[in-house]
Structure formats: structure tokens, C-alpha cells
Design a protein that fits this description.
The complex is a heterodimer of chains A (233) and B (46). Chain A is of the alpha/beta class and 233 residues long. Chain A has seven helices and ten strands. The chains are: A alpha/beta (233), B alpha+beta (46). Chains A and B meet through helix 1, strand 3, helix 2, strand 4 and helix 3 of A and strand 1, helix 1 and strand 2 of B. Strand 3 of chain A pairs parallel with strand 2 of chain B.
Chain lengths: 233, 46
């Protein structure tokens, strides 16, 4: 217990002499060795950073100086199913200062790019970020999914986006879907194997629903699609 | 070259995400920076 000003609070301290702390440090050291060895075996340069304080704050800070931040799909659900699964990911998606990719658990390659687009600045921003950051994928088939939730005419914006995309991609198609946006997008994405899915506006809520659904169906470890999420602040 | 940062739980490394890292690295001709967390990820929300 600590007293400060006119309040009292509990200050937690890590017991660095405890067996569990030492065991965890050993596991991390082993994990870092595995990480380095794995990429070394594949001739990929790998560097290591270690956290010092609050993970979310530090990851967000590091994202400021990165082009892409990758987290694994199992990171959010964790191993303790009783906990809220997506808090870290949701917070990261909100605060990260570069686009975030949720890595799949069962990656088989990219056959297609799926852009979820609702005409918003955020969705368009995500498409542009993806295009600028991963120009190597410009030969892939592109599908833009647009969910019609209302009667608003987005024809003019659709035309503008089509023109922009034609500067970068050669195989662009549109899929127009009707229904509640989250449910429709979820079904569409779950059925798209080999797709790299790009979200702007829907990203945070979609990921939450995706993992809730995955958990409900006990397929958490077989998420097959990488998700690219960027938000326009 | 792009800077690709991968947030990893050091005590429970996810091999599948490393596989995706290989794909991204080869696609972009970039290295990978692993950011290892030592504090349980959930503690940050307390």
C-alpha cells in the first residue's frame, strides 16, 4: 500500500526473485533464440526488441517508426478462453500508428485481395495504405465488397475509386452485398480462402466479431486469412 | 525495404505467425523486427 496526496493505492511490484518470474524469463529467452534461429535458417534478417513497461504503450510507440505491425491471430484470444479475447487487439487497432496485420494461423498464400469499402474516408485510406505498402501484390485479383445498408447512392464515389484503383491493379471486380454490414462482411470473409482482407472503417468491430465467431466455432487456430487494418484518424 | 514489426509473446511463440513473417519478408525484401513482450499481455489493462 502506498499513500500519495490524500489517496491510498496498491502498488504492484514484480518479484524478480520469484521462481515463476525466472521461469518466464527463461521461456522468453528461449523464444527469442527460436525466433532468431527460425529466420536465420530462412536467410531473413531479424532484429529483437524487448519491452520494458506497459506492453500496449510500447507497441504503439514502436508502431510509430514501423511501416507494418504484425500480430498473430492467437494473440487476441489467448490461451485463457475465460478472458475477454480481443482487448489487446482492439486497443492496438485503435492506437497503432501504422497499419496492423493480423497474421493467420494457417497461411497458405495470397490468391486475392479483398477490400471492404463503404465509401468512407477510413475505408479508402486503408485501400491506399495497403496499395502503397504492398505494391508487390498489384498483379493479384482484387475484389471490392460494398455492403448496401441504406439507399444512399455511392455511384460517384465508386466511379472515383475505380479510376484510382485502375492505376495500380489490373484485375478489379466489385461485389455488392445486402444486409447488416457486420454479419454480411463476416460471412463473406470467412468464405474467402487465400484472401488478404483489407479493412478501414469496419476493422475494429469486424475483428472482434470474427474472433468471437471463431471462438464459438472452436476454429480459433485455423484462421486462414490475413487482415490488414488501417484507420484514418 | 519496409520496417516490419512483429509483436510476439516471448513466452509462447506463435510459429504460424513466423511463417506469415517469411511470406511478408520475401514479398517486400525486408527484415523482421520481433518485439518481445515479457509482461502478460492482459496485465496492461488492469
Amino acid at each position: 500500500m502506498k499513500k500519495m496526496y490524500d489517496g491510498t493505492y496498491i502498488e504492484w511490484e514484480v518479484d524478480r526473485q520469484s521462481g515463476s518470474w525466472k521461469e518466464k524469463m527463461q521461456k522468453i529467452a528461449y523464444g527469442i533464440e527460436q525466433f532468431k534461429a527460425y529466420y536465420d535458417n530462412h536467410d531473413i534478417p531479424a532484429a529483437v526488441l524487448r519491452d520494458k513497461g506497459v506492453p500496449i504503450d510500447e507497441v504503439v510507440y514502436e508502431s510509430r517508426y514501423a511501416d507494418l505491425l504484425v500480430v498473430d491471430a492467437g494473440y487476441s484470444p489467448g490461451k485463457d478462453a475465460a478472458r475477454t479475447p480481443t482487448t489487446f487487439i482492439e486497443e492496438l487497432l485503435t492506437k497503432a500508428e501504422c497499419p496492423v496485420i493480423i497474421a493467420p494461423d494457417d497461411f497458405k498464400g495470397v490468391e486475392e485481395i479483398v477490400f471492404a469499402w463503404d465509401g468512407s474516408a477510413s475505408a479508402t485510406f486503408a485501400i491506399k495504405q495497403f496499395t502503397y505498402l504492398l505494391p508487390e501484390l498489384r498483379e493479384k485479383k482484387v475484389s471490392i465488397i460494398q455492403v448496401r445498408e441504406d439507399e444512399r447512392d455511392r455511384g460517384a464515389a465508386k466511379q472515383r475509386l475505380s479510376e484510382w484503383l485502375s492505376n495500380y491493379y489490373t484485375h478489379v471486380g466489385w461485389d455488392e452485398l445486402d444486409g447488416p454490414v457486420n454479419a454480411v462482411l463476416l460471412e463473406y470473409c470467412l468464405g474467402k480462402k487465400g484472401a488478404f482482407v483489407v479493412f478501414g472503417a469496419y476493422g475494429r468491430s469486424m475483428m472482434s466479431r470474427f474472433f468471437q465467431r471463431s471462438r464459438a466455432e472452436q476454429v480459433i487456430r485455423t484462421v486462414a486469412q490475413p487482415f490488414f487494418i488501417a484507420h484514418h484518424s | 525495404m519496409r520496417k516490419i514489426l512483429m509483436a510476439l509473446d516471448g513466452a509462447d511463440l506463435c510459429k504460424e505467425s513466423l511463417v506469415f513473417g517469411i511470406y511478408l519478408s520475401r514479398l517486400t525484401h525486408s527484415g523482421i523486427t520481433g518485439y518481445f513482450l515479457k509482461i502478460n499481455r492482459r496485465m496492461s489493462f488492469l
